[in-house]
Amino acid sequence: MRDSKFEEDILQALTLFVRKLNDESKNGALVVVEGQHDAEALESIGFKGKTFQLCHNRSLIELSSEAEKYRKVILLLDLDRKGRVLTKKAAIILQGKNKKIDLFFRREIAKATKGRIRQIEELTRFGEDLQNLVRLN
Predict the structure, then answer these.
(1) What is the spatial distance between Cα 74 and Cα 84, in angstroms, rounded to a whole number?
(2) What is the C-alpha separation between 83 and 34, in angstroms, rounded?
(3) Predicted structure pTM score
(4) How far is CA 27 from CA 36, 43, 50, 78, 99, in A?
(5) What are the tens digits of pLDDT across the range 79-116?
(6) Which residues are CB-contacts of 26 (< 8 A; sequence separation ≥ 6)?
């Protein structure tokens, strides 16, 4: 049996999360994810912005080049070991280019989901419920 209050709290937090992420994207931020499934998961919860898929046959050098077109870069890589390593590597390269890096959303996703996801693609499990909540409001 699922705790509906717990689930509702997560959905409310994710609604705020995706609203902030969309605002940042509209204001010139590039969101970096690991791959296609992560990009699709963000879309499933209502993200409308541009993503750069780091592990979709694209390198950190390509990220550095793409980042030049944006005001800042939001690193939203998985919360597992691989994601931490990629986040660190990307941050080092982008800092070398004097690019503004945002890690807020990486921490915020863990908080919003109360630690229930470790990989961004797992957001799809909240997609339908979140879209229904948005339609009701």
Answers:
(1) 14
(2) 8
(3) 0.89
(4) 23, 18, 11, 24, 15
(5) 999 999 999 999 999 998 899 999 999 999 999 998 88
(6) 49
